[in-house]
Queue: 2 jobs
Job 1
Amino acid sequence: MSKIFVDACFGKETPYTPVWMMRQAGRYLPEYMKVRAEAGNFLNLCHDPKKACEVTLQPVDIVGVDAAILFSDILVIPDEMGMDLEFIKGEGPKFNDPIKDESELERLIGGDEAASKLTYVYETIKLIKEQLAEDKALIGFTGAPWTLATYMIEGQGTKTYNICKKMMYSNPELLHKILAKVTEVVKLYMEKQIEAGIDVVQIFDSWAAAIEPSKYDEFSWKYMVEIADYLKAKYPHIPIIMFPKGIPSFLDSVYGNFDVFGVDWSTPMTLAKEKLGDRYVLQGNMEPCRLYSKEATTTSVEEIQNIMGTSRHIFNLGHGILPDVPVENAKHFVSECQRVSRKS
């Protein structure tokens, strides 16, 4: 296990501030695109442990980050719950059978039965751990129940969330049933990831900003906290990262038994430090588009370091890396993070 990365997650003193990059296996590496082409399509790649292991390790070897993030997709969970998932070129993921009423919820597989079907993920983790250097950590992840439920109800990505939010206000009981069912699967899924060998858990809530502040705890955060509580009770040695995207107005309401709070690029690091820095390690939050310019990257890295100083922090982007970012610029980001953190 990476002593530096895991210690940093727990807020312990480390020789430098570790760095990793969201969606690091991502689409910016030519080596990744080659493996994906060999797999035939994205879902095939997720289902192939050897290939998924290969693309997980690529950015560690090529870019030099301090932690690997498991290559998979958040939507493998509803897929194995019995929904009909496909990835359409140029459009993204789509469920051909979105949940519209309670009868459609009842047909879904739940609990351990669904979590146990994700064997290819656990096999991938085991392969990665066999090959990952001992000084590198492996981060497992899941989508938050709200983000997963949004896809399951809308059927695909959305800019308005109108179908899901219609359910929130007109039939909240049904939405809570969906969230509860997904939460139970996620708990067991993450537990099985831990048992397979991951060192750190991250819970993404990509669509957090779609919920108004007064409803966020009820329909998202409390379910994320429930997952964290479940995992902490059984695996207190495993750090948990919470990453709700786009909620600067919610920071006063953040609570829970977890270790690291992911700060997205739209949330000022000074604000996150003021509101949460005394309770959680902060992670983030460079605007990913700065990677198009080495100069802009250096400026941001130095600004983040100046804000955080000796406070508990993990360098990262403020969301996923984009596919046309030059690999040399990604390497520059990592080297600049390492330079300023060692200098301080």
Job 2
Amino acid sequence: MRLGPGPRHAIPVGILLLLGFAAPLVAVTAYSLATPRSFDVFRSLTLANYRTILDPANTVWLSFAWSLLLAAATVVLLAAIAYPIAYGLARLFGRWAGLVGLLFVFPLFISENVRLYGWVLFFIKGGVLDGTLRTLLGIGGPDVLFTPGMILFGMVYVYLPFMLFPLTLGLAMVPRDLIDAARDMGASRLQIWREVELPLAMPGILIGFLLTFVLGAGAVAEAKVLGGQSVIVITHDIEIAFTYAQNWPLGSALAVLLTLLIGTLVLLVLWRLDLDRILGRR
């Protein structure tokens, strides 16, 4: 009689999680409690870095607000953009679905910064769009570069695959027989979507939403390259603290607060949703 996997089989996974997840969090948290502008990690315990961040005179909360606002707007826009494409991949494209999916995967093989600078060359004055419009119509291109809207455009462009493929997986989990049965019983297309497709596809939709929001809240390249630092996001403040300012304790404190904030928001969303019903456990 062979026994199933026992606790000892979970030891490698536990070690991997400990080294890859818990250890960095412990290190960052320890640095956040160190003396400002020092490397006295594990040798000093102070809340000075947190007091600096929470000081009313400090405007770092604007960076937090911009990061969360841009991430939420990215999720909303990508939900509207990716859902029809995901529906086509799961239901309509047939044998062409693999090729269409590959077109969305291919940009991931190119550096994000290279792709973003490509958009800079496209939208910049004297660039591709501006030069083409001047040649054909005699008018210049729109001055959209280095604006918050351009940052949002870049985030939607970069994170589209991370929303698209979980949505496609979720829609692919909906049995066609149920849709046909609902149609035979006289349900309208809207009713089928609301009562059948949406609930059954919700695991993939939820994964896409959460993944995109977490990635968007931690985005920095879009704000630096396409936004020209017209908007300072929190990840930029963290980068400056760790590099130019050489204030690792302050950067660690910012990272801890960002992790706690995003984690709290995600847990609140999961708490408000009935996951057992969404995942079909009851």
